[in-house]
Amino acid sequence: MSEQKRQPVSIESGSGLGFGVGLRTPHFPHLMQNEHWSVDWFEIISENFIDNYGFARHVLEKVRAQKPIVMHGVSMNIGSSDPLNQVYLEKLKQLAHEIEPQWISDHLCWTGVMGVNSHDLLPMPFTEESLGHVAARVQCVQDYLQRPLVLENPSTYLEFQQNTFTEWDFLSELVKQTGCGLLLDVNNVYVSSHNHGYDPETFIRNLPHDHIVQMHLAGPTLMGDCLIDTHDQPVPEKVWALYQLAQSLAGGQVSTLLEWDANIPEFPELVAELNKARDVLNGNLPASKKVFNAVDDRVLSTPLPR
User: Fold this and answer.
1) Fewer CB in a 10 Å sphere around the end CB: N or C, the chain?
2) What end-to-end distance do the CA atoms of the chain give, in Å?
3) pLDDT in tens, 21-63
């Protein structure tokens, strides 16, 4: 695609792409009509561009010609007991060949079983057995893609009673066994810590910081006594504080991505929210005390088909 082939960033390099946003359909007109976007890079949802050679690919090609791209997937199903989906991996590798991403990421979760995709990021048991299972699968994927895989901590709403690891210890051991990278979703740490009653700072302080390749920021929503990872509003102050801590522990140069996937604002408003991350790294936390909004009873997830 580009005249000068861009090399994937190594996991240990600290990456340093700067500040980016997700490439989303409502922003296509703005991106096509303007040449200067005030962001350093873009993240795409891999599945939205696999086998897609229509207008969305045309937009991606324009963006890719000017900015680095990262591929972020939601369907690798790396934690499932199903066999790895070879057709999916072939298509993922082909997309990577075409757009030359800086890295490829997905989630430490399972998304389906017996061939059914739930379209949800479901929590894994943190046990020795599941660690061995997922580590072997990560190695297989890395060998096939010929690059390190980057895995994100998902938001979770329940835990297994059989857990013998904390999530941060499980991630640390997975990194040790596979050499994979970490996508630290700071909002997910905040959401899961609220839902499960642990200290979010303990989670962040006990990760292998030299393997954090990227960080995600987003705004969650309170539903009753549960926080839901909705990506539909500004980043709350508590997440900014955790982000500041995470960056300080990881060297302060980790690539940062603002996620916003519902009630998506205009592109300039999105960039204004992203720029708060730059301010945080300069020591200026957002002054707003507003953490999140209560919402109505809208459906926030996709149920399994019956």
Assistant:
1) C
2) 42
3) 999 999 999 999 999 999 999 999 999 999 999 999 999 999 9
For the question of whether the overall pTM of this predicted structure is more than 0.85, the answer is yes
Q: How confident is the model over 228-263, as pLDDT tens digits?
A: 999 999 999 999 999 999 999 999 999 999 999 999
Using the predicted structure, report yes or no on whether residue 13 has a pLDDT greater than 80: no
Q: What is the DSSP string of the chain?
A: --SSPPPPPPGGG-----EEEE--GGGHHHHHH-S--S-SEEEEEHHHHTT--SHHHHHHHHHHHHS-EEEE-S---TTSSSPP-HHHHHHHHHHHHHH--S-EEEESSEEEETTEEEEEEEPPP-SHHHHHHHHHHHHHHHHHHTS-EEEEPPP-S---TT--S-HHHHHHHHHHHH--EEEEEHHHHHHHHHHHT--HHHHHHTS-GGGEEEEEE---EEETTEEE----SPPPHHHHHHHHHHHHHHTS--EEEE---SSPPPHHHHHHHHHHHHHHHTT----------B--S---S-PPP-
Closest CA to 179 of 208, 155, 148: 148
- CA-CA distance, 259 to 238, in Å (whole number)? 16
Which two three-digit tokens encode residue 276? 């708060």
More confident residue, 278 or 306: 278
Is the pLDDT confidence value at 197 over 90?
Answer: yes
Per-residue model confidence as pLDDT tens digits over 74-117? 999 999 999 999 999 999 999 999 999 999 999 999 999 998 88
Distance, CA of 218 to CA of 262 (rounded, Å): 11
